[in-house]
Amino acid sequence: MKSKLLNGNEAAALAVKLARAQVVCAYPITPQTSLVESIAGMCARGDFPGEFVNVESEYSALAYTIGASYAGARAFTATSSQGLAYMHELLHWAAGARLPIVMVNASRALGAPWSLEPDQLDSLAQRDTGWLQFYCADVQEILDTIIFSFRLVEETGIPCMVVYDGFVLSHTHEVVELPGQEQADAFLPAPPGRTALRTDRPQNIQAVTDYRYVSRVLQRRHRDMLKVPALIQSLAQEYADIFGRNYPLVETYRWEGAKWEETEAVIVAVGSAAQTVKSALPSFSGQGDKMGLLRIRLFRPLPKKEIISLLAQPRIKKVVIIDRDLSAGTGGIFAQELRAVLQGSPFQGDIYELNLAGGVDLTPNLLHRGLAALDRGGDDDGSGIIWGVDLQ
Amino acid sequence: MIHTLVGDIPRQEFMLSGHNGCQGCGPALAVRHLIKISGPEAIIVIPASCWSIISGVEPFHSLKTVVLHCPFPSAAATGAGIKTGLEAVGDMRTQVIVLAGDGATFDIGLQGLSGVAERNEDIIYVCYDNEAYMNTGTQRSSASPYGSLSTTTPAPAAKSSPKKDIMKIVEAHEVPYAATANIAYPGDLLAKMRRAMQVKGFRFLHIFTPCMQGWGSPIEHTVKLARLAVLTRLFPLYEVENGEHYRLSYIPEEYLPVQAYLEGQKRFSSLQEAELAQMQKRIDRAWRALCQKAGVDPVIPPPKA
Ligand SMILES: Cc1ncc(C[n+]2csc(CCOP(=O)(O)OP(=O)(O)O)c2C)c(N)n1
Ligand SMILES: [Mg+2]
Questions:
Q1: How far are the Cα atoms of A89, A95, A221, B63 from residue A215, in angstroms, in the given order?
Q2: How far is CA B155 from CA A88, A165, B68, B258, in A?
Q3: Subunit contact B84:A191, Cβ cutoff 8 A
Q4: What are phi and psi of A344, to 5 degrees?
Q5: Predicted-complex ipTM score
Q6: Cα(A142) to centroid of ligand 1, in Å?
Q7: Is the pLDDT of residue A382 over 90?
Q8: Cβ < 6 A, ligand 1 pocket
Q9: Residue from A131, A320, A99, A297 nearest A196 by CA
Q10: Mean pLDDT (chain A, rounded)
Q11: What is the CB-side half-sphere exposure of residue A214 using CA atoms within 13 A?
Q12: Which residues of A touch B40 (CB under 8 A)?
């Protein structure tokens, strides 16, 4: 293992190489582009174990990846924003076909208007497509989560989206522990090879069928999804034994020790925003001083049990959910999901939303301002949401 | 004289009776022939189309080979991905055949088709052309001919633009092999499929497959109409290698006006005299251009009295 200075896209490219992906097919889009370029470059230099294929669109990129995966190849693609939206039909198809595909999505706002900011609605809007979704908080985690996901998809037959904030993580350099190939090989077995598309007998794959069959297929997918959190926990232990890093389903901060004794409120954050919260909390007095942090890492399936057991404690009176997305007319998507999870649980406190839709940069100042608004009793505009940017 | 160009057709069948095609289904007949050449070991990729149904509803299957269904616009890229995936796992031999309708090819999948053609992906792309979206009940496609009626171009608003020339588009990519074929000329169709199986790189077959249901003709007229399309030079049989070597597969012996083909098809029932003349002019012009590329005399003698 050696230390290297890498940005998120470079780390992702190296993870795909370490995972010995056999077919990579992707279409460039800011802020994912340098990831595609990295893999194309490694391929051109003969420094990549698989094939890199340029196509004419994201739609074809995912169709191609689906084809390669059907043939038994370990396959990867990557995109962002408009590109992910363009893939939508095939996201459903890949999940329905139970293909072990790993994809990266570097978060970026969806138009109109054009924007390059790291709003997360692009991937959150795909929450019902049947893909697993991880949201990473730093560059090391991007690398580890991609390697990890290849094992996870091959064990479950459920495709996985590894999401990280555009620019904030895709283009920011951090010191990363780069594992050796032998470590990656110890965790990831050789690709499964030919399975579905065997030509030794006739088959009519994904032929038209009726509701009975479809209902069973969907129920099986649902059940298999529910088993994923436990599987992740056991694989995470294995991963930790080899790589020395153990990633939980949800991360907690200031959850024990003296501070925790006084904690009355918890901030729920996702991705790089959680890093900001972590670094800002200790410097706050008042509200912030009595707060813990819960970071959601796995969003699909949402680890409900773990979230409830962490939040449903008598001392926690307030939960502040930070969303960098907006389902217009309803609110932040994480806020909706958390409300649904806590509904009917022993959690008795109040739920607040701090919304950074549009990809508002979460600074310690902004966090401070948001929490101050909470101190005053909440939102100023009656929306039930504290906004990162004032409307005026 | 009517040429059927019946060549050496293998007797072995890889398509089963009891499939879901309508009576007189042109696309079913085309695949019955093609698959005799590609055999049981090819992988056939089918986007949404009549063939999604003809191949059989779960758990039935009408082809003695592997069929993989995929979304409507995705067949070209899915097929190419399969081929690359097979090679990645060490299978250099298995042929991947995309079998797509005109809607999937001329319209919604055109971008993907252009992509695989430009990259010279090593697959065979078969477009069976029944000149409309038939699976969804005969809506116009860009392959529908000028003057034809459909449920989305109903009388008196018949289609006002000519049929898109998909071969020209594919040829412009300078692909190793592209050919037109027709179910009324099975010997020629099989020979072209054989050739396609031998060539490496992107191969394209554009097969004319009438749909009696959608065209409003008696079910026993499928082959007759397909043949008339060739005899009137509405759908010439030819092949192109590398976008430059043109070869006409068949030259009609006498000049047959397009009227002979249009008769008995309800979809042309609103056609006016002037439109008919317009259609004939287009056919003659396209024929001259094709003959020029192939280095052949375009003049066809009038019928002997
Ligand atoms: C994205 C999308 N749009 C529309 C459809 C509905 N649809 C299914 S098949 C079809 C028409 C197919 O036409 P063509 O490719 O000519 O094949 P044919 O049915 O004539 O055999 C349409 C419009 C679909 N399945 N997917
Ligand atoms: Mg059609």
A1: 19, 15, 10, 26
A2: 36, 54, 38, 21
A3: no
A4: 80, -5
A5: 0.97
A6: 39
A7: no
A8: B 27, 48-51, 72-73, 101-104, 130, 133-136, 141
A9: A99
A10: 94
A11: 8
A12: 199, 202
Contacts of A245 (CB under 8 A, 6+ apart): A140, A144, A177, A239
CATH number at residue B218: 3.40.50.970
Residue B186 lies in a domain: yes
Measured in Å, residue B262 CA sits from the centre of ligand 1 at 25
In a domain, B180, yes or no: yes
pLDDT tens digits, B111-143: 999 999 999 999 999 999 999 999 999 999 999
Record: contact A202-B52, CB cut-off 8 A: no
Beta strands at B177-182 and B238-241: parallel, antiparallel or unpaired: antiparallel
CB contact under 8 A, B80 and A67: yes
Mean of the pLDDT values across residues B58-71? 96
- How remote is the C-alpha of A266 from its chain's centroid? 21
Residues on chain B touching A203 (C-beta within 8 angstroms): 61, 66-67
What separation in Å is there between the alpha carbon of A228 and the centre of ligand 1?
A: 36
Q: Domains in chain A and their CATH numbers?
A: 2-243 (3.40.50.970), 252-391 (3.40.50.920)
Domain that holds residue B50: 6-294
| Structure-token pair, residue B84 | 């690359």
Q: How many domains does chain B have?
A: 1
Q: Is residue B135 part of a domain?
A: yes
pLDDT class of A390 with cuts at 50, 70, 90 = confident
Q: What is the chain A residue with the closest CA to B85?
A: A68
Residue B74 has pLDDT above 50, yes or no: yes
| B305 in a structural domain | no
Q: In terms of pTM, does the model score above 0.95?
A: yes
* Residue A180 one-letter amino acid: G
Q: Closest by alpha carbon to A350, among A342, A360, A361?
A: A342
